[in-house]
Known about the structure:
This protein has two domains: 2-114, 2-Layer Sandwich (Dna Ligase, domain 1), CATH 3.30.1490.20; 120-231, D-amino Acid Aminotransferase, Chain A, domain 1 (2-Layer Sandwich). Strands 5, 6, 7, 8, 9 and 10 form a six-stranded antiparallel sheet that branches. A four-stranded antiparallel sheet has the order 1-4-2-3, sandwiched between helices. Strand 8 (207-217) and strand 9 (222-224) form a beta hairpin. The protein contains eight helices and ten strands. It is α+β, with helices and mostly antiparallel strands and 234 residues long. The two termini are 22 Å apart.
Amino acid sequence: MSDQVSQIITKAYSEGRQFLLEPEANEVCKIYGLPVAKIKVATSPEMAVQCFEEMGTPVVLKIVSPDILHKSDAGGVIVGLNNANAVREGYQKIMENVRKYKPDANIIGILVQEMAPQSTEVIVGMTNDPTFGPTIMFGLGGIFVEVLKDVSFRIAPIKREDAYEMIKEIKSFKILTGARGREPADLDALADVLLGVSKLVTERNEIASLDLNPVFAYAKGAKVVDTRIILAKK
């Protein structure tokens, strides 16, 4: 586990990056047992179609480039593609958009990601506080975190009881228990995500910040849809 993650982080530093590309961040999270969405990186429209057919589900396409940090701004994300022609055209459209947005961008490829079923969104994050060390955050996604700042914090490492406390102390916790006709979320799965993040950021002090946003909380299980990892300065 340690060697694989070290190789990924060393590669980023060797290329002058203080961040992991999304496929790299996804792989690091996967190594630590986090329930990340399935992904593959395609370097041609035909390869993207092959990835789609292997996944057997609707997919999202995202640009993979060290020069494009905000993918949506560059027209680098297309969601809900469910047939080979749409995937092929989506690949070509993203490449056109990105080349217009930043003609000299270094393009690694296009990420083909399974489109996870919609559900209640939560966010899990970490910032490495200079005084306290890695501090983990949990909250509901969307307006709850952006506007209401309804989040909880703990200093890593955390235990399972800490994870449950983090989940239960947000003001919007009732939404996770099935309020207003929603399915109750799998709190054990969310606790597992928090514990996985705790282990990752405790063992890897090269990580300055981490964002899993969104994480879909299901009645059984959870799925990390988007991963972002920023590295500390060397």
